[in-house]
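Recall the central idea of this unit: under ordinary conditions, the amino acid sequence of a chain determines the structure it adopts. In this exercise we apply that idea directly, starting from the sequence alone.
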Amino acid sequence: MKEKVKAFIQKYGRQLPALALTVASVATLCCRGDWYQPEEPEGLSEFARRK
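Accordingly, the structure predicted from this sequence is:
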């Protein structure tokens, strides 16, 4: 098993950091990133009009 992992890293070692960066940037969008909308506090529209 150790030899298989070593061969995999030797073969795809240069692409692994790019893949990790891509997965990390997409993962933040999946976890509350774009779809989370908190509840609007009471009186927010009135506060915004006064400012």
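DSSP finds three helices and no strands in the chain.
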